[in-house]
Each structure stands twice: as C-alpha cells, then as structure tokens.
Amino acid sequence: MKFFVLLIIAYLLGSIPSGVWVGKLFFKKDIRLFGSGNTGTTNTFRVLGKKAGIAVLLMDILKGTLATSLPLLFGLNVNPLVFGVAAVLGHTFPIFANFKGGKAVATSAGMILAYNPAFFVYSALIFIIILYITSMVSLTSMISAVLITLSTVILPFAIPAILPQFDWLLTSIALALTIFIFIRHKDNIKRIKDGTESRVPFGLGAHKNDKTKD
Length: 214
What we know:
Pathway: Lipid metabolism; phospholipid metabolism. With 214 residues, the chain is mainly α.
C-alpha cells in the first residue's frame, strides 16, 4: 500500500506545472498561450524571461529529485528510479494542466540527481557542452539523451567512480526516455532539418538568427 501511495505522490509532484503557475502568479500570463505553448523551461525562458526560466528549471529538477527520494525518505526498499519515472510522467502528462506538460528533460535530470549526483554532474556537463556547440536546446536534449543512455552502459566499466555498477533499470529507463524525448521533439526535428529552429543567444551557432519558435 505504501508503494502505491508514494507512487501517486511522485506522479502528483511531477504534475506540478511550474511554468504555468509561475507565469500566472507573477506575470499574469499563461505561457501555454505564447511561444511554443509548451509548459517547460525553454518556453518559460522565451516568454517570461531569464529569472522565471531559471526558477522553473530548478522547480522542474526538484520535482524529479524529490519524487525519486521518496523511497529513501519513507524507508521503502524499492529502486528509486521507479518513482522518478512517475514524476517524469506527471511532468509530461500533468493532471493539474489538462495532461499537457513539458518534454521530460528537466525532471529526468532531477531523477538522475537523486539517483546518483556524480552521474548528474557528468550528464549536465554533456548537456552544457553540446548546447554550446549547437545553440539549440531541442537538439541538445536529443543528443544528450542518446549519449547519457550509452554512458549508463559504458561508465560502469570505463569510469566506475561515476557509475559504480551497471543498472539494467537505469539503462532501460534512459533508453525509453530517449525515445520519448525524440517523439516529443518531432516538430523541432522538422525545424532543425528546415534550418529554422530557435537558438539560444550563445554558443558556436548563436550567430544564426532563427525566427521559428521552439
């Protein structure tokens, strides 16, 4: 019974629509009506600005971290990644926002943070480096997801200090999330092919001015 109750709590934590709530509470704006219409960090940055974007990013990461920590907090002997996945599903299909949420990236990062902080830092570095190279959050998210999934297999043998042992559940979840992230970015993939995808104002590709919204 405790398992199912905590699983529901994890989903509800993930369902908190950070971008929507921050926009309505502090800016009197529903970000779903602007930009890409997405409730996640990227659209928050674009519609509400840097401070709001950072706040939503941290909140979305925290949702995944807190949900994944539930087994430890309540003494449940279950792989914490199960609860992290529940939070990711909540973030993507939030009950508090008509089941239309973000693209799973930030909350997945929070799940990794709770599961293995060293692996989180490693994954964050991958994301930052690729973002600098591409200047596109969407493309960075997809490439990072692939590399992080591969890393769950390679690191236990190559650099065990970061990931001490192979966890088939971690690899399976990473692979599933990678596929899911690609599906959620299908419109972005089309714009990347067309050369019209939005870019962040820094990095090697930042000089290209794109008009299309993420």
